[in-house]
Amino acid sequence: MPDSDPSAPDASAAPELELTVVVPTFNERANVRKLISLVETALGDRRWQIIFVDDDSPDGTASEVKAIAARDGRVQCLHRVGRRGLAGAVIEGIMASAAPFVAVMDGDLQHDERLLPEMLRALREDGADLAVGSRYCGGPDADASALGVRREAGSRLANWLGRQVLKADLTDPMSGFFMVRRSRVEAVAPRLSTSGFKVLFDIIASQGRPMRIVELPYTFRAREAGDSKLDNGVVVQYLGLLVAKLSRDVISPRFLMFAMVGASGVVVHLAILRSLLHLGFSWAQTLAALGAMTSNYLINNAVTYRDRRLKGLKLISGYIKFCVLCSVPLAANVAVATVVYERGPSWWVAGLAGAVVAAAWNYVTTSKAVW
Known about the structure:
The chain is an alpha/beta fold. 50% of the residues lie in helices and 10% in strands. Strands 3-2-1-4-6-5-7 form a seven-stranded mixed β-sheet. α2 links the parallel β2 (48-54) and β3.
């Protein structure tokens, strides 16, 4: 009998996978089984899999997924430890897929899984590159009772800003419910930001050639269980992403956020400096620099590096490292500011000059050593 060709297709192999559903999760154990059941009902006998990308949920979401995966080969778990963030989770889930089409939906049951077959049809049969589940397209608008009045208003503003940057005819570029050709994501993966929440916006904005996009209406449902992944830090991250895309990725979102936090530190610095001038300028400048350093550390930990956020003892040790690294340019900060102050009457110009000297050093060193 002739030797078999290892490169020949295996006739006994399982049918080719059509679709991967990627679900980023955090504290959504209670939703896992119901979501799988709903997806199974919606997709029927289509060849699909579902990948839960869990950011080490303390409620045991990953354990729940793994228990189901042990009995159902269509279910997989990517358990991430030491890194956080919806965008990064979505990107990792897409890159782990072998299916030609990948859907992204939340694990909180707010997205309507019954739209998945229509999305798949738009990509597979109609030739679209991207199908977006829209809260504002030809159907009922997002219900304020599901989002909350403040979040619903914020969602509309974010969508308007996104449309101005994308220059695309989309009603909901901030949607977290979409299906895309995996190849279109892989082509731009190195340029995608792993921090933040608006991964759909990032995927569209990073493309070198236009995407064929269809929008399909659906009604956004109320959350049943789990924790919202959104907080006030998302606003800053989103603004950073907008500027990054406007600059054609010359400016990274994280650097921009660090710079914005640094700008707030300048305000803190000048306020402290002005209030302590009676101590003498050099002492006032030193204390102002330390105050701004502390403010910058706490805000950067909460916003700029929210996906690597330090807590407990790590927050304290991180602060010590941050202070040590930032103290290296502190002497130059004080020296430059003192010289400027002695040669001119404006105390705030002197303080600002000293603060600018230390900015570049602080970003480069703390991003590597602290977070």
